[in-house]
Amino acid sequence: MSSAKYNRVVLKLSGEALAGNLGFGLDPAVIKSVSEQVKEVAELGVEVAVVVGGGNIWRGKVGSEMGMDRATADYMGMLATVMNSLALQDSLEQQGIETRVQTSIEMRQVAEPYIRRRAIRHLEKKRVVIFAAGTGNPYFSTDTTAALRAAEIEAEVILMGKNNVDGVYSADPLKNPNAIKYDELSYLDVLKEGLAVMDSTASSLCMDNDIPLIVFSIMEKGNIKRAVMGETIGTIVRGK
User: Fold this and answer.
1) Using one digit for the tens of pLDDT, what is the confidence trace for 19-44?
2) What structural domains does the chain harbor?
3) Is the pTM of this model over 0.85?
């Protein structure tokens, strides 16, 4: 094992991050960059699980606001995460990294069903595991999925890679140039101030299970490795 600070991590990627500057769909250059960064970490001996969002293809909340049944809209969003997961799996395997996709909604022709003990075994064998289709339930975000899976597999940290910010700010830095970047926060701070880090369900789950969260820019190459090695990047959220 290397001198990495964390041995088992959950990497949370938003769908928007995979779209890059395209704004919609998949940017092959971004997916390749992410897979290269994951490979860099996996080769250190770190066990990596990934949770991918689907907002670059479909957002359940948007569908609901259009008048669609919320549960149906959310299930469509879960299917979008499967598409992203398969794209990331393909890119990782092109890099020579053995990868498994596990889905919360069964679709055995394209991926394994999510089984906690099997996922842990894959990680122990140094395979990258991608958790797709959210929790398998409507009304829960992929942020909550990341928190839930991190607790289930006993991950030591959640790494949240963003594509347009490099940490947590007091306001949207793209809209407010006076927004203040935080180096460290507690989950209570996030909940009290309503900071757009992750939704309240996910924040509460992380807080209750004492799982730290590191928010950083995925667009800067090497940042996943820096986070895993314990370097100070982005914003760390922890404890109460």
Assistant:
1) 988 888 999 999 999 999 999 999 99
2) 8-233 (3.40.1160.10)
3) yes
